[in-house]
């Protein structure tokens, strides 16, 4: 079957089982973004690290062009990173890629250099973290590989290809830079997409916390993407009832690591966008059915997210299904 057809097949399967899928995906994505926010003292800093990490994996992958036996594994990653040759880059190029103003990009890079995550040598800015950082990064990455393997396994089962979870993890670790280059590319596309929608990365993370509650209400049923975004009044009432799908400022701040005052400002911005409503008695926030279920742009963006990650899942499944043991 042609690759584009199979990738589309995966996309359609996810959209059909959307309620079930987003319970897995949004929990993972929330943890991923929270980790970026806490580790790098801000999501914009984390976004920059993802950009440099992707460049690092791309440079490592180039070695494969000259040596088919080149080791791309997780165990060899930092050694490979140490010996790679980085190309000069400019603040303007970086700012265009991460959709930040030039001066903001310059300031954020300086912060990451101070954190000993990035390093600057003349015109070369590179991801060259400290040994302490590498240790914590490895620990976090082992957990992340496990979580992404769960998503790939879920998708593989939905298309009747049962690949063992351990085999998926082993494949990721054996060809780490290959898979992580494509995975980081998907994450960067995800951030680009939502940044266009909200123009604010922190709003993305806050919106995820409310969306996770919505997902928890549909995970047991066979609820499609179309149903969640339908105009059916019963579905809207069942999914978006304010008594169970609501959050407080304190819980959002505690979970995400975003300061309380910032959370209040971002939540109020989401009210202005008609995504959220506020109960003035309880001071809690909940999704506005009219602002979410009937929002055509929001519906389209969530479909595009599925398309982005379906391509990544396809890449993984194609390589895994090609192996004799499967």
Determine Rg (CA atoms, Å). Answer: 21 Å
- Share of residues in strands: 5-15%
What does the oligomeric state look like here? Answer: single chain
Rounded mean pLDDT score = 87
Number of helices: 16
Please describe the biggest sheet, giving its number of strands, its sense, and whether it closes into a barrel: 3 strands, antiparallel
- Tell me, what's the shape? globular
Q: Pairing-aware structural class of the strands and helices? A: mainly alpha
Q: Please trace the helix and strand order, writing H or E for each element.
A: HHHHHHEEHHHHHHEHHEEHH
Distance between the termini: 17 Å
Number of strands: 5
Number of domains: 1
Uncertain regions spanning at least 5 consecutive residues: none
If strands are numbered along the chain, what order do they take across the biggest sheet?
A: 3-5-4
Report helical residue fraction: 55-70%
Summarize the structure in words:
It is a single chain. The protein has one domain (3-321). Helices cover 69% and strands 6% of the residues. The protein has helices spanning 3-16, 18-39, 43-62, 77-83, 91-98, 102-114, 131-158, 165-174, 176-198, 201-218, 225-228, 233-240, 249-256, 260-272, 289-292, 296-321; strands at 118-121, 124-127, 246-247, 276-279, 284-287. It has a three-stranded antiparallel β-sheet. The chain has a two-stranded antiparallel ribbon with strand order 1-2. The protein has 16 helices and five strands.
